[in-house]
Amino acid sequence: MSDALRWECQPPLLTLRGCLDRETLLPVWDARKSLLTGVTRLDVSGLDRVDSSGLALLVHLRQEASQQGISLTLEGTTDRLRTLITLYNLQDIIPADISAPAVSQ
Questions:
Q1: Angle at the Cα of 66 (from 62 to 72), degrees rounded to 5?
Q2: Which stretches does DSSP call E strand in the chain?
């Protein structure tokens, strides 16, 4: 059983914590439209685990934001997540930063 996925939304920042995988992503998927309202930054530094389903969700969130004319920036990308992005050759679709975790303002 996967650890819970938690999030905190304080636009323009959406912070995800816990495990983002096929067993935990449904609540975020269901709430994605309201969660993305006013959000331009997505802090993923608190994710302990991301599987291919979770990565697909991140790609989809960026695409939905892009369709609304919003550039959704991923912040705090971990080494593991950058490796997964590279393995799926998604660097152009979901750029992975190498910066420190996001800081809420």
A1: 50
A2: 5-10, 13-20, 41-50, 73-75
Tokens standing for 65? 């934001």
Around Cβ 10, how many Cβ atoms within 10 Å?
11
pLDDT digits (tens, 9 = 90+) for 25-69: 999 999 999 999 999 999 999 999 999 999 999 999 999 999 999
Q: Which two tokens stand for residue 17?
A: 């914590």
> How far apart are the C-alpha atoms of 28 and 60, rounded to whole Å?
12
To the question of pTM greater than 0.85 for the whole model, the response is yes
Structure tokens at 60: 């989809």
From the centroid of its chain, how far is CA 35?
12
Element (H, E) at 12: none
Asked if 55 and 66 touch (Cβ cutoff 8 Å), the reply is no
Dist. CA 88–CA 105, nearest whole Å: 33
